[in-house]
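Running co-folding for PXL.
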Amino acid sequence: MKRILTIQDISCLGKCSLTIALPVLSAIGVETVILPTALLSTHTMFKDAVITDLADRLMPIVAHWKKEGIRFDAVYTGYLGNPKVVQTVTEVVGESGDPAPFLLVDPVMGDHGRLYQGFDDNYVKKNRDLCAMADLILPNLTEAAFLTGTSYPESCSAEEVQCLLKALTELGAKKAVLTGISLKRGETGAMGYDRESQQFFSVQVPQVPAAYHGTGDLFASVTAGSLLRGLSLEEATELAARYTAYTIEVTRHNGREKRFGLDFEKTIPQLLTWLEEIRSQSSAAVK
Ligand code: PXL
């Protein structure tokens, strides 16, 4: 079984970051080691969250693992909360052994053209440095605009997304998948680019008219886990897009406030069925 280290906050209530990554990656069949960067009573869409920063604990934890000879096949980073944590995570990743584990960075910084509460230019700069080291980055359009220093596009043609993907990989990452891309009314999805092969791909699924907190974390966790189970990047992106849309569809009938997040608990069985179907047909997947 492959082993992944995921580095992000733990929000006790309001499903996102580690409370999505851990169950989803485990269900997919990947040993999941967690490095919580902060402990929050809730995610930051609730008012007055009680936050305990764990930045100072990260290096000692990693040092202990090193002493034990622990190695990872992949490292997946998500919401990191402040520039000091991003800096520390960049250092952790820089020393993560030889051969270096596959590094997936979801540069969680904002949405709908704006940075999340508490983030500024310095936070963006630190995330840019971390992204430069990545094998794969997974920004949404807002994050891509901040990372590349371009203005946020309300809508994008396929050619414009391709330019943005190239600009993103020019910052250093080997591959980029841009999420939240709607190329046609009623559809949404993602587009990807591999700097080495210079190949693009595009995935579109029916758009469900609802938005939930933690959606990006679900997408990134499925992508990370599926890659470790042997799917190609295009297959993993296709599965993540289809499964995320399905989970939004299932959730939107529950009548609860959006900040309580997605009902992914109900849809994990479907995720595993789709994953096994793709693996059985995939040339890339080790059966
Ligand atoms: O889902 C992204 C995320 C993760 N963790 C925390 C957040 C957010 C987005 O706002 O506040 C604490």
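Result summary
The chain is about 40% helix and 20% strand.
Residues 9, 11, 16-17, 40, 43-45, 79, 108, 116, 213-214, 216-217 surround PXL (CB under 6 Å).
Job closed.
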